[in-house]
Amino acid sequence: MAAFLFPYYPCKYERLSKTHLVVPLIIKESIKLSNHDSEHTETIFRAVEKVMPLANKKLDKTDPKTRVELGLIIRTIGPLWHLAILFTAAVEMTLGKPTADAFSEYTHLIDTVTQLGLDNAYSLKHVLDGKAVSVLLKLKPGPQIKETLDVVMEWQLEHPTGTAEECKKHILALKSNSDS
User: How far is it, in rounded angstroms, from Cα 12 to Cα 169?
Assistant: First the structure.
């Protein structure tokens, strides 16, 4: 279904003074599938623009930044990451990339995700939760907690064997640097 509808992904329509994508409308109203199917299709489509640049560059498996970048993308895509990578390879082939090149690049990307142990990054729990961050930084619930949790996750992806205590030290060091 995603392959059939992908050409329509950029198309939009207006309803009640809001702009909407056509694809969810087609899935729900014409094909009569569920919101779940619509959401999965949109996730795969949105992943194309994130995955394509990764497959086309040389990823250094030893660079912690590679691990963070891949981990955050896998978290964004969720459990459909493998399918999204394969779909993006198919999109590249329809755009004229030789099949052997696309196969090689995207297989390398999947292998890199697997070798870095990021297969399940989408289900990774924060080493510090919102409550711990709130207590640590003496913050009330709000956007700052989410921003800090994003930093926690980046740190966690960069330091896969790191502990909660090490992460706390990192967060406090960042806070003291920003205060000065």
Answer: 47
Give the CA-trace dihedral at 121, 69, 106, 76, to 10 degrees.
Answer: 50
CA gap 170, 173 in Å, rounded: 5
How is residue 124 annotated by DSSP?
Answer: P
Bridge-based pairing state of the strands 18-21 and 12-15: antiparallel
pLDDT tens by residue, 25-59 = 899 888 998 888 889 999 999 999 999 999 988 88
pLDDT digits (tens, 9 = 90+) for 86-118: 999 999 999 999 999 999 999 999 999 999 999
Tokens of 170: 């990192």
Question: Which contiguous run of DSSP H or E holds residue 102?
Answer: helix 99-115
CA dihedral sign, ordered 49, 52, 57, 59? positive
Would you list the domain boundaries of the chain?
Answer: 1-31, 46-124, 126-179
CB atoms within 10 A of CB 89: 23
Query: Looking only at Cα atoms, what is the longest distance across the chain?
Result: 58
Nearest C-alpha neighbor of 155 from the set 173, 131, 180: 173
- 3-state SS class at 18: strand
